[in-house]
Design a protein that fits this description.
The complex is a heterodimer of chains A (153) and B (134). Chain A is mainly alpha-helical. Among the domains of chain A are: 32 residues, no CATH class; 29 residues; 37 residues, no CATH class. Chain A is built from 5 helices and 3 strands; from the N terminus they run αααββααβ. A two-stranded antiparallel sheet of chain A has the order 1-2. Chain A starts with a helix and ends with a strand. Chain B is of the alpha+beta class and 134 residues long. Chain B has a single domain, classed as Roll (Diaminopimelate Epimerase, Chain A, domain 1), CATH 3.10.310. A 3-stranded mixed β-sheet of chain B has the order 1-2-3, with helices on both faces. The radius of gyration of chain B is 14 Å and the shape is globular. The N and C termini of chain B lie far apart (33 Å). Classes of the chains: A mainly alpha (153), B alpha+beta (134). At the A-B interface, β1, β2, α4, α5 and β3 of A face α2, β1, α3, β3 and α4 of B.
Chain lengths: 153, 134
């Protein structure tokens, strides 16, 4: 320490702008001198960059998952109805669960009934249930014929 | 789109407007196809609003299926937080109401956690497992 002091003459002007007072003393003690721009960059820029990165990580991904259902929040997605696609065994495997009704529930679904029936007629067991399908209108289903369960959350 | 207008392959963009991502749709498709193949019953999934009375509306949807007697419909209304499982006459013998209630419970637990696709896939698997091989 003493030796170092002796090496550096007191009256040498500092190279940054020639301020011979405090900065020179600081440097002699091992301190780092920063200009105002550097100070701002280090103490404002870096924290701001870190905050921006974390913000982006947190909220950037949620745009893609915005359709996620959260209980208690309104769920405004289109109604969908799936059955397995029996025709697609090998080649048509890319067509995911074939959609037989979409849009606002009641009108689209009632519109899709006949066409669903005809599409099914082309399938394997078309002849067996053809009479059954034509016979059962929507209104003739009585509640006793079906089973199942209900639940809520 | 309604069924029969076009082949199902043409329905790509419409399906993606629904509540599921492509990956979830693939999982759902896999589950439905597997359940149908292993049981011989027809499994169907409806996700959307259910009119009141909920049970009646679900049964109405069920009756629109190709072969209601051998069909199982899972109707879910995320907004109303209601879940209905409807089994047809024949399907009810394979999946007793008690077992249907059991899978309804597990599905409702998943839906309560916000996992629609996962709950459906698990529920379908459970129902199919119960129905067994034919």
């Amino acid at each position: 320490m003493l030796r170092y002091r002796e090496c550096v003459p007191r009256d040498v002007p500092h190279r940054h702008g020639g301020r011979a007072g405090a900065p020179g003393t600081l440097r002699r003690h091992g301190g780092v001198e920063l200009t105002i721009t550097e100070t701002v960059l280090v103490f404002v820029g870096i924290p701001a960059a870190v905050i921006a990165i974390i913000y982006g990580l947190v909220y950037g991904g949620s745009a893609a998952r915005s359709k996620r259902y959260r209980p208690g929040r309104p769920f405004n997605q289109m109604a969908v109805w799936f059955v397995a696609n029996k025709q697609a065994t090998g080649a048509g495997a890319s067509s995911s669960g074939h959609e037989i009704g979409a849009g606002s529930a009641a009108p689209a679904l009632s519109g899709g009934t006949e066409s669903a029936g005809t599409a099914g007629g082309a399938a394997a067991d078309g002849s067996a249930d053809a009479g059954h399908d034509s016979g059962s209108g929507l209104s003739t289903v009585s509640y006793g014929e079906t089973g199942g369960a209900s639940d809520s959350w | 789109m309604t069924a029969g207008d076009k082949p199902a392959i043409a329905a790509r963009p419409e399906v993606l407007n629904g509540p599921f991502t492509t990956r979830q749709l693939l999982r759902l498709d896999d589950a439905l196809r597997g359940a149908d193949e292993s049981t011989g019953l027809t499994f169907s999934v409806y996700v959307g609003e259910l009119d009141q009375p909920v049970r009646g509306f679900a049964e109405k949807l069920h009756s629109q299926l190709e072969d209601p007697d051998r069909s199982v419909l899972i109707a879910v209304s995320p907004n109303q937080r209601v879940l209905e499982i409807v089994t047809g006459h024949e399907a009810r013998r394979r999946v007793p109401d008690r077992q249907a209630k059991l899978s309804a419970l597990s599905m409702a637990a998943a839906f309560g956690g916000g996992d629609l696709a996962g709950g459906l896939v698990a529920g379908i698997a459970q129902l199919a497992n119960q129905a067994g091989r034919f």
